[in-house]
Q: What sequence folds into this?
């Protein structure tokens, strides 16, 4: 047997060397490129009872990873080594130890693309399949298997894949297989549509998962299929797009093992021209949690991605106190977004012009009527498509951007929000939070290289922990240095002992693709923008070091 | 040697032999990845070009305030930059399906003249080794990456433009 393999290798090497007749081995190797990135984060923890930070037994926790990608012509391969010794607080606790859970080889030529190993993929908006990574949060549901993409005809792209999903340093039990087709009609029917002002894309996907039924209580479907169809029409300055997804019965821990089918609808329409942009979106989600292991929870093994339709906040008080997350079991959401540029010289624009952005979004539960059929059909509930249930979240935002002089400019925001703590945070009985937020963000350029930026934010509410205020001061010396201090203070808490300060000081240096940041203090979870970079961060306290590099 | 190792060597050999016939499409500094244009149609990064003039590739997101500050600051000078050096700035939005629809209204609302593309699942971001946004790459006339920068501080755009002017004058940066 051994001889056969050796013969095969020899044979392949012969083919290889014959094919190199035209070019030398060195030429080929020189065309190869290595790219990668590296991140290391480490934190020294202090016990911090004020913010509920317990003592950390290891004292120092660190995460690190290195991504290496090699490309040479049509071939590419890569690997990622990750290390959690142990993982930083706020990271999913399943990350323990070191290892390689991401490696792939892929071949891309003309109309064909083939990948084996780990890959990330999204079908349409991701309503039935999206594998992606968000390293700052420790989100990684990569598929390990095989993926084929084929551009079968002008404007027609097909994708087929199969694999198992990653779960920390292991794989989920379920097998996922999917197929997607997307047709760009203007390219496919180029003769008929070449003079058309409309650009039309249609697509459809099918995803199914298999997981053995080991339940003694229920007869569970081992193969669960979901389908989706999408279309996008761009006509001049208008765009309308939508996607509808349907999932067959998928009893799981998320939906309390009911046999109801699931569906999701996402509709968006926008108009944009120079100086003006308008967007309306609507979404309805009903029982769309789709995992490759029906018993899992939290962020584990999700096959699909249903986006929240609310504004993604980055200012401290909005991003860390009452952020909204999609409710997979049921949600009806609407969002409107307007952006307008007042011209220079106009009444509101003034000498240098002004920009305004208005956003309004709402998220409600779907209407549900319980069927009380737990011992019979187990459909759980029925829901009227066009009705809505209780409020989950409402958010109204106005932001004005204005440049005052060649040295000074500012962004001023107002937000009004309604937040259903009971449902979103799982705290039954807690009242809805009604809050008003005022933010001023001003930048002053002391010179071409030196600048100072200050933020003052205040959140006013009579519920939950009362009022908060945040002050941030950031000094940058372009292009390499920054230093910043921030304090998020719960000054309005009824309980004087709980008026916590989330103070934080950071300093950083960056050069080319490398960056090192040292920060000390406390941080709430959310999107943290400081020192010119935005990162998604979990809650933390202590001395924090981060080194990132891209090469 | 195990069967797996044999097969791996065999696969690598096949890939290498096939790739010797492959044309290295596109600029050397940019891996070939499928991204999207603002209207949702597919676009391959190997088609990025600027006829030998410098290219800036900037990764940003609608939720990233420093990114927006940087691109809005450059927008005030972009026309002048283009007249002087022919530089092209490609603004690569990494917004996912939550915010992707906001990119076109935002870009047009602000009146940006950049070439804007979408990378909703992070494929190009991953291939270019980007950790966080904003991340800027500068490519010379031959399409090689000669400079990159992560983060944005007020005034960074002036340092970037100094490098763009050097490239436009035929000088080399980073020995390339």
A:
């Amino acid at each position: 047997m051994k001889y056969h393999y050796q013969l095969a290798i020899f044979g392949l090497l012969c083919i290889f060397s014959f094919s190199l007749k035209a070019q030398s081995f060195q030429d080929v190797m020189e065309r190869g490129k290595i790219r990668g990135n590296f991140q290391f984060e480490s934190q020294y923890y202090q016990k911090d009872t004020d913010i509920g930070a317990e003592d950390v037994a290891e004292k120092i926790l660190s995460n690190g990873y290195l991504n290496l990608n090699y490309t040479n012509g049509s071939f590419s391969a890569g690997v990622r080594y990750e290390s959690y010794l142990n993982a930083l607080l706020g990271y999913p606790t399943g990350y323990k130890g070191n290892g390689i859970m991401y490696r792939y080889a892929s071949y891309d030529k003309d109309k064909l693309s083939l990948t084996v190993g780990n890959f990330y993929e999204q079908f349409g908006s991701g309503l039935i399949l999206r594998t992606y990574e968000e390293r700052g949060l420790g989100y990684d549901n990569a598929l390990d298997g095989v993926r084929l993409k084929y551009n079968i005809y002008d404007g027609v792209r097909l994708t087929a894949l199969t694999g198992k999903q990653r779960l920390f340093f292991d794989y989920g039990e379920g097998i996922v297989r999917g197929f997607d087709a997307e047709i760009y009609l203007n390219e496919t029917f180029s003769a008929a549509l070449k003079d058309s002002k409309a650009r039309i894309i249609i697509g459809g996907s099918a995803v199914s998962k298999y997981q053995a039924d080991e339940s003694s209580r229920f007869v569970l479907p081992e193969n669960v299929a979901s389908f989706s169809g999408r279309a996008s029409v761009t006509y001049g300055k208008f765009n309308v797009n939508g996607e509808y997804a349907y999932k067959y019965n998928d009893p799981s821990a998320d939906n309390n093992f009911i046999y109801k089918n699931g569906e999701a609808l996402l509709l968006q329409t926008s108009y944009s021209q120079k100086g003006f942009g308008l967007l309306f979106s609507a979404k309805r989600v009903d029982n769309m949690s789709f995992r490759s292991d029906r018993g899992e929870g939290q962020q584990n093994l999700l096959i699909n991605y249903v986006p929240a339709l609310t504004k993604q906040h980055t200012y401290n008080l909005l991003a860390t106190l009452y952020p909204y997350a999609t409710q997979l079991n049921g949600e009806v959401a609407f969002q409107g977004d307007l952006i307008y540029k007042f011209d220079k010289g106009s009444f509101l624009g003034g000498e240098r012009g002004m920009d305004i952005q208005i956003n309004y979004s709402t998220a409600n539960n779907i209407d549900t009527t319980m069927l009380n059929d737990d011992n019979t059909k187990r459909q759980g509930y029925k829901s009227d498509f066009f009705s809505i249930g209780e409020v989950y979240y409402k958010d109204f935002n106005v932001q004005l951007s204005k440049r005052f002089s060649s040295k000074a400019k500012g962004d001023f925001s107002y937000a009004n929000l309604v937040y259903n703590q009971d449902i979103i945070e799982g705290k039954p009985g807690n009242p809805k939070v009604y809050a008003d937020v005022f933010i001023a963000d001003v930048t002053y350029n002391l010179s071409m290289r030196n600048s100072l930026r200050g933020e003052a934010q205040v959140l006013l509410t009579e519920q939950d922990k009362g009022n908060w205020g945040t002050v941030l001061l950031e000094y940058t010396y372009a292009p390499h240095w920054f230093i910043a201090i921030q304090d998020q203070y719960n000054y309005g808490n009824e309980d004087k002992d709980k008026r916590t300060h989330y103070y934080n000081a950071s300093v950083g240096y960056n050069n080319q693709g490398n960056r090192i940041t040292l920060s000390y203090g406390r941080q709430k979870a959310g999107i943290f923008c400081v020192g010119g970079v935005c990162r998604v961060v979990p809650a933390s306290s202590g001395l924090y070091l981060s080194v990132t590099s891209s090469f | 040697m195990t069967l797996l190792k044999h097969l791996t060597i065999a696969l690598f050999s096949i890939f290498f032999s096939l790739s010797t016939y492959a044309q290295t499409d596109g600029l050397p500094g940019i891996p070939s990845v499928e991204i999207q244009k603002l209207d949702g149609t597919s676009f391959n990064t190997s088609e990025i070009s600027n006829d030998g003039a410098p290219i800036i590739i900037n990764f940003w997101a609608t939720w990233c305030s420093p990114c927006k500050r940087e691109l809005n600051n450059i927008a005030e000078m972009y026309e002048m930059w283009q007249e002087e050096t022919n530089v092209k700035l490609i603004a690569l939005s990494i917004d996912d399906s939550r915010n992707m629809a906001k990119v076109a209204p935002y870009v047009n609302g602000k009146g940006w003249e950049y070439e804007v593309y979408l990378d909703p699942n992070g494929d190009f971001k991953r291939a270019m080794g980007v950790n966080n946004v904003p991340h800027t790459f500068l490519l010379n006339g031959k399409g090689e990456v000669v400079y990159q920068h992560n983060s944005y501080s007020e005034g960074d755009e002036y340092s970037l433009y100094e490098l763009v002017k050097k490239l436009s004058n035929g000088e080399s940066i980073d020995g390339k």
